[in-house]
Amino acid sequence: MKRALLRSSAFVRAAKRLVKKHPTTHQPATDLGYLLYKNPARVQSFNLAFGQAHVFYPEASTERCTAALLLDIDPIGLVRRSGGPSGEGFALEQYVNDRPYVSSSFLSVAIAQVFGTALNGHSKDRPTLAETPIPLHAKLTALPCRGGEFLLRKLFEPLGYTLTVQSTPLDEHFPEWGDSCYLTVTFTATCRLSELLSHLYVLIPVLDDDKHYWVDDAEVEKLLRHGDTWLASHPEHELIVNRYLRHQRSLTRQAFAQLQEEDDTDPDTTQAAHAVEEATIEASLSLNQQRLGTVVSMLKQHKVQRVIDLGCGEGRLLQMLLPDMSFLALAGMDVSYRTLAIATARLHLDRLPEKQRERITLFQGSLMYRDQRLSGYDAATVIEVIEHLDAPRLAAFERVLFECARPRLVILTTPNAEYNVKFSGLAGQFRHRDHRFEWTRSEFQDWATTITRRFGYTVRLLPIGSEDATVGSPTRMGVFTRER
Ligand code: SAH
């Protein structure tokens, strides 16, 4: 049965096979079956909108395991479903085309539908293995590459793949016609299976420069989700975005805006770059870790169960809180969509079990405006955020937080300007170019005291990071407790 399937479909139909081999280092290699959620002992078939997908294992031993995904596309069904000839191309184009025989966006859809859990990096039975880079090979047959081997290499080599490429003549009876655009490619890398699948999922339609379905906003989200760890830094990200979104300006603009690559005046890009700068300046102290650790222990001391992190950025604090089940509800709010997208990826929101997923919410909003969504939490944290707000608008923030949301505990941290003399690499006035101000200890104290008087809170001011006898600690923390 397996052989018949191989012969009749894989070879006769020049089929679209995705082959992953998983040799040597991890044993038993058949654990690949747990990662893919497909039992190596069985052939399984799945009905998809455009035909059938079959999964089987040509080899499955302790040392080596190969899974094959084979598509059997129904070309007649495709035409029927698309509602007949569209008037484009030549009369029979819908019936006579390469689509049933090549590795195209149909294969990407099949990867997502048949290996969706693996694509998202989950494995119930082998969670550690799913997170571990392992030696993998993937082989795609008849992969259409508009741009040829040159482009293929430009797309995959920066991601760490070694490629073996075999070209296909247009017609083997007429070698003088030259090669077709179809390549048979083996991709080899040591990476997580989810990374391999995401790279293929995104880059197959990019190489083909075609998609069998209409692209819309949802495609931007898919692209950013599947490209979250690698796309922004890929040297060809512009071509990838343009081709993946079928060159639709409104969509590519959205994607670029979120990737922050197209327009370097975008505040988010600058913000991200500057955040790196700030992190470098503070790195010697691993100040960020100390800061977050102090905040977490303060929340625990106050027996807080529901926390909202305002200006949550990339979700670092939430990431520390999430595993602790004493926090029943967690929320993160930020003004920047891009950082929220990073937070979503960092917290693996798309793969959290339902119970966990219900505990956490991320949303976009501004601290300048009253917002019902900020109410109902025991504590609000505002970690290294106020110095990003324009000083004249601080009053709006104060009312939003201390008058409207009014949690029983507010933990707020901000840099101590006096400490900046200790940072040798500091070029400008502030630690982060996006900071609108940095306060001295007494300025912070004055502000905090005013807050307590106006809104009925008490405050304790504490140092974070190693304290210097003259200039104090690098970060200051205000712990505000509501009086009534
Ligand atoms: N609290 C995070 C991020 C600090 S960086 C951490 O400690 O890692 C400052 C964050 O404040 C950025 O993510 C920025 O987008 C956000 N921010 C700036 N102005 C804001 C506003 N008006 N409303 C909400 N968030 C804001």
Shape field: elongated
- The CATH class of the largest domain turns out to be Alpha Beta
Radius of gyration: 27 Å
Spell out the CATH superfamily of the largest domain.
Vaccinia Virus protein VP39
In the sheet with the most strands, the strands line up as: 2-3-4-1-5-7-6
**Helix content bin:** 25-40%
Proportion of residues in β-strands: 15-25%
Unreliable segments (pLDDT under 50, ≥5 consecutive)?
Answer: 1-24, 83-88, 261-269
Name the CATH architecture of the largest domain: 3-Layer(aba) Sandwich
Largest sheet: 7 strands, antiparallel
Q: How many angstroms separate the termini?
A: 75 Å
| Class derived from helix and strand content | alpha/beta
What name does CATH use for the topology of the largest domain?
Rossmann fold
Mean pLDDT: 83
Q: Name the hetero compounds present.
A: S-adenosyl-L-homocysteine
Count of discrete domains: 2
Task: Please count the beta strands (DSSP E, at least 2 residues each).
Answer: 14
Summed up, the helix count is: 18
